[in-house]
Design brief:
The protein is α+β, with helices and mostly antiparallel strands. The chain has one domain: Aldehyde oxidase/xanthine dehydrogenase, molybdopterin binding domain (Aldehyde Oxidoreductase, domain 4, 2-Layer Sandwich), CATH 3.30.365.10. It has four helices and five strands.
């Protein structure tokens, strides 16, 4: 089991989404080495963030055309938010000392959590990754021009109350 929450800021000038915090709760059985387990989760979350926001594969004639470190964008430590890791310990009767595997688990949650946070921030649902600034730009400007969705920043998306009505 894994629960993830992403906090984002979406810049409506550059159309970039920046993660400000990421929370990962993992149930991995009995945690045998907390530092190594947390590092495993942080690494998997970092990979998931790259998968969600940066790593776009470009294919030409059946070959990956951006297969160099100079043209395949991956996040660096400077691109990552603080990753808060918590564990829920439910020992497994099948694992050594109650432990379970944690290798791939942390990669599952970041992309949906990030896209949900971006939807919460913008009011627009996105369903493809990686979600690049040009994708956010295309969707926000297309929707605004068509009038299909209201992107009025004067309305608080949590309360649906116009900010001018909110007491100071």
């Amino acid at each position: 089991m894994s629960q993830t929450v992403a906090e984002v800021i979406v810049d409506t000038t550059t159309y970039s989404a920046q993660l400000t915090n990421f929370y990962a709760l993992q149930e991995v059985g009995k945690v045998l080495h907390p530092i190594l387990a947390a590092g495993q989760i942080e690494g998997g979350v970092a990979q998931g963030i790259g998968y969600a926001l940066y790593e776009k594969c470009l294919w030409r004639n059946g070959h990956l055309s951006n297969n160099q470190m100079t043209n395949y964008i991956m996040p660096t430590s400077a691109d990552l938010p603080r990753i808060h890791v918590s564990f829920e310990e439910v020992p497994s009767p099948h694992g050594v000392y109650g432990a379970k595997g944690i290798g791939e688990l942390p990669m599952d949650g970041p992309a949906p959590a990030i896209l949900n946070a971006i939807e919460h921030a913008t009011g627009l649902a996105f369903n493809e990754i990686p979600l690049l600034p040009e994708d956010i730009f295309e969707r926000m400007t297309r929707v605004q021009a068509s009038g299909a969705e209201d992107l009025n920043p004067a309305v608080d998306r949590d309360t649906q109350v116009e900010t001018s009505e909110v007491p100071a």
